[in-house]
Design goal:
The protein contains 5 helices and 2 strands; from the N terminus they run E-E-H-H-H-H-H. Strands 1-2 form a two-stranded antiparallel sheet. The model has no long low-confidence stretch (mean pLDDT about 85).
Length: about 130
Amino acid sequence: IREGDARGRHTTTSRQLHLLVSGCTVLDTPGMREVQLTDAASGLGELFADLQELSTQCRFRDCMHESEPGCAIKSALAAGEIGEARLERWKKLVAEDAFNSESLSPRRARDRTFGRISKQPKKKGKK
């Protein structure tokens, strides 16, 4: 901790992978705030091949697998053919891959718009 501003600083200078007794691993990446998956579509296609195949059988191409009629994923879930936890992991990873694969320009524009909206004063409701 620095005395001047009471803030910490990085002390590691190289990447290192630590294996824990529990079997988990921790990746120490000094100076990096986050690690993102990019271009993971092919890996998702292999790992979740059954869900990918089912999604092609949905009634609508842009099915979000929530409440749309004719959703093959929801039908398989209701029939017990797929697990809900696995389905949620797949949906989360697909959404994360889409976000991370998005070009920087549209992402920055969306972030700017959100920033403007969040800075607007809130209107007080009638009492």
